[in-house]
């Protein structure tokens, strides 16, 4: 079980929050370079804590499909990551809203914050105290970091209320969908950069999974320049049963790539080792080779 009140874990959580939803482009201040959607979250559960001065604080943990779902890992994998030298392999995308003044059941004034996550992760926390403790620790760190406040770790989850006050609308960045350009007989070979990931042989899926999602295609990801932090990645995805680009849908997240086909022939969902400049991503589909090539600019190192 995680111990969120230890000095070591608190220091780790502070590092983790810098790698989690607050830097995944999810928040309340839309910037002009990316597209955003407004969501009204639905309640999940409510956490009660307080500030240093004793003022009551309620954290409405709520959900919306528009928020990206985190990578699906086990409790054992999470604990191993937290104990490893590089614990940033797991992120919980979240949208932390602005504080809003409310009245508690005793008629006293209080502050409420809405934190929005994907419904899938909400379900995961219902079955796992480890994931719930991890998430709540990261959430408290995120609120402290964003609003320069100090919150008590002696929290209580309300039994009879799923939220305090009216849940606020939030702006969530939508995944960018690059326009797919069709190419004729031009070859995509000869790029000549070292591989980050070799061609991956698809794992067999059950008949139900194949019908619902599609087969995992062969793909490779290469980087430029070959050494050090890349300027961009190039993903080459082999789609031998696809004839036209207009049957493909690509969602590019900050560190995630999802490919779907209209006929459910293929499905690919992968996490990338670098953060991308989503609005500058470009896709090309070669009708002769049936290869989809994605050029993915990488964010500079901090």
Structural class: alpha+beta
* Envelope shape: elongated
Radius of gyration: 22 Å
Note the quaternary state here.
single chain
How would a crystallographer describe the biggest sheet? Answer: 6 strands, mixed
Low-confidence stretches: 1-33, 183-203
Helix and strand element order: HEEEHEEEHHEEEEHEEEEEEE
Keywords:
18% helix, alpha+beta, disordered N terminus, six-stranded mixed sheet, single chain, 302 residues, 5 helices, 17 strands
Detailed description of the structure:
29% of the residues are buried. By secondary structure, this protein is of the alpha+beta class. 18% of the residues lie in helices and 30% in strands. Strands 2, 3, 4, 5, 6 and 7 form a 6-stranded mixed β-sheet that branches. A 6-stranded mixed β-sheet has the order 9-16-17-12-11-10, with no helix packed on it. The protein has a 3-stranded antiparallel β-sheet with strand order 13-14-15, with no helix packed on it. It is built from 5 helices and 17 strands. α1 crosses α4 (129-147).
Q: Which helices and strands appear, and what pairs or packs with what?
A:
Layout: H1 7-19, E1 36-39, E2 42-50, E3 56-63, H2 75-83, E4 95-96, E5 100-103, E6 109-117, H3 119-126, H4 129-147, E7 156-157, E8 170-173, E9 180-183, E10 195-197, H5 207-212, E11 219-224, E12 232-238, E13 248-252, E14 256-261, E15 267-271, E16 282-286, E17 291-297
Parallel strand pairs: 3-6, 9-16
Antiparallel strand pairs: 1-8, 2-3, 2-7, 4-6, 5-6, 10-11, 11-12, 12-17, 13-14, 14-15, 16-17
């Amino acid at each position: 079980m995680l111990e969120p009140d230890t000095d070591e874990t608190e220091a780790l959580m502070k590092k983790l929050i810098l790698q989690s939803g607050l830097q995944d482009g999810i928040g309340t201040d839309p910037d002009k370079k990316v597209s955003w959607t407004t969501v009204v979250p639905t309640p999940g559960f409510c956490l009660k804590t307080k500030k240093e001065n004793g003022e009551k604080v309620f954290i409405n943990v709520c959900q919306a499909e528009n928020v990206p779902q985190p990578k699906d890992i086990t409790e054992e994998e999470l604990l191993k990551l937290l104990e490893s030298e590089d614990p940033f392999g797991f992120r919980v995308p979240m949208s932390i809203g602005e504080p809003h003044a409310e009245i508690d059941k005793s008629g006293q004034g209080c502050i409420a914050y809405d934190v929005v996550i994907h419904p899938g992760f909400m379900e995961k926390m219902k079955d796992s105290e480890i994931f719930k403790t991890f998430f709540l620790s990261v959430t408290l760190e995120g609120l402290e970091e964003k609003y320069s406040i100090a919150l008590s770790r002696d929290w209580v989850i309300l039994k009879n209320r799923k939220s305090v006050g009216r849940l606020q609308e939030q702006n969530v960045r939508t995944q960018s969908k690059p326009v797919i350009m069709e190419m004729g007989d031009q070859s995509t070979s000869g790029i000549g950069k070292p591989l980050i990931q070799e061609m991956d042989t698809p794992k067999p899926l059950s008949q139900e999974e194949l019908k619902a999602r599609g087969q995992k295609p062969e793909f490779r990801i290469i980087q430029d320049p070959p050494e050090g932090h890349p300027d961009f990645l190039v993903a080459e995805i082999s789609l031998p049963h696809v004839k036209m680009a207009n049957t493909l849908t690509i969602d590019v997240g900050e560190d995630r790539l999802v490919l779907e086909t209209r006929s459910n022939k293929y499905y690919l969902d992968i996490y990338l080792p670098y953060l991308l400049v989503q609005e500058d991503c470009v896709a090309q589909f070669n009708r002769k080779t049936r290869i989809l090539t994605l050029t993915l600019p990488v964010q500079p190192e901090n």
